[in-house]
Design brief:
Blueprint: H1 17-20, H2 29-42, H3 45-50, H4 54-57, H5 62-70, E1 73-84, E2 91-102, E3 105-118, E4 121-128, H6 130-136
Antiparallel strand pairs: 1-2, 2-3, 3-4
Pfam families: YchJ_M-like
InterPro entries: NTF2-like_dom_sf, YchJ-like_M
Protein name: SEC-C motif-containing protein
């Protein structure tokens, strides 16, 4: 068994694996965030497109996204804060820090991500400024 890259403490096969492979859809914004990090770590870029807010999928730069995922060795994820984003919510925000080895140095990426639910499925919408996240949740 292989530990999930999202650092949930669960095995990949029961954590992000079924999400990325398309057998289940995440029930919370945090679960979607974790699966997206894992998709970067395992270079499963198709899931990154599929889990992106539908209106943004058509203009997604897949070659650029693929290069971004492949140019780093993803080494850690810490979820710092979650607002809303539960199974009964329609919006959510996840504040996280992702770490990647790039050009011989570990770099941190801190982001507040906005998520929205459409037809029962959570999607990543965009990165937002931490101080704006709360005001965007209910819009």
């Amino acid at each position: 068994m292989k530990s999930c890259p999202c650092r949930s403490g669960l095995d990949y096969d029961v954590c992000c694996g079924p999400v990325i492979e398309g057998t289940i859809w995440p029930q919370t914004a945090e679960a979607l965030m974790r699966s997206r990090y894992t998709a970067f770590a395992l270079r499963k870029v198709a899931w990154l497109k599929e889990s992106l807010w539908p209106k943004y999928q058509k203009t997604l730069d897949m070659p650029g996204l693929t290069e971004f995922a492949h140019s780093r060795q993803w080494v850690g994820l810490d979820i710092l804060k979650v607002e809303q984003g539960g199974a009964e919510d329609t919006t959510g925000m996840v504040l996280f820090v992702a770490r990647a080895l790039e050009s011989g140095a570990v770099r941190e990426h801190r982001e507040a991500s906005l998520f929205r639910k459409k037809k029962g499925h959570w999607y990543y919408v965009m990165a937002v400024a931490e101080d704006q996240a709360k005001s965007l949740l209910d819009h």
